[in-house]
Amino acid sequence: MSSRKIFVLDGHPAKTSLSREFAERYADAARHAGHEVRITHLSELVFDEDFGQGNYENFKPLEPVLEQVMEDIEWSEHLVLTSPMWWGGLPARLKGLIDRAFVPGRAFDPRNTTLSGMPSPMLTGRSARVILTSDTPGWVMRLLYRRALIWQMRGQILGFVGFKPTRFTYFAGASYPKPGMVERWIGQVERIGAAAA
């Protein structure tokens, strides 16, 4: 396999978390396999999460840390995002980063539309991996919640701006994992990282 440029974003707002552990283990495994990796931790970024009263013509300028996130995404061939699922969605700070950074003219082009009438994506040619942790059992996520967050991430966020394919790894029971479970999860993340998948 040829070397890939990988941007890893730890999307947990806390300084210590399973998401951070997974991000770092993925990055280490990918580097060891010969891939070029950049990694950012959401907890270390200072920015205004509120898109505010901006619109497509008049939105807040990106803070330097958000500009760097976008430069890392544009540099990358593969995005890895680690995050918990809270209340069926993403943490507010992570959603705020997406709201602020994925702006028109940078992530999508509302002036040019696809055949379906949707704005043209501007981050095409990249794949993504989302590693989610939750306390929601997998069968509940599938049958009762219809994998709503996964559909949102794949279609309305990452797919909307051009990431294809987007693959998901879902770890349930994250707050109180059974003995040995975290080690098994880490092993799985390291295998995915080594494969740059």
UniProtKB/TrEMBL annotation:
Name the keywords, alphabetized.
Oxidoreductase
InterPro entries named in the record: Flavodoxin_fold (IPR003680), Flavoprotein-like_sf (IPR029039), NAD(P)H_dehydrogenase_qn (IPR051545)
Residues in Flavodoxin-like fold domain copies:
5-178
Q: Which SUPFAM superfamilies match?
A: Flavoproteins
- Which Gene Ontology molecular-function terms are recorded? NAD(P)H dehydrogenase (quinone) activity
Give me the Gene Ontology terms describing cellular component: cytosol
Top-level taxonomic group: Bacteria
Member of which family?
Answer: Belongs to the NAD(P)H dehydrogenase (quinone) family.
UniProt name for this protein: NAD(P)H-dependent oxidoreductase
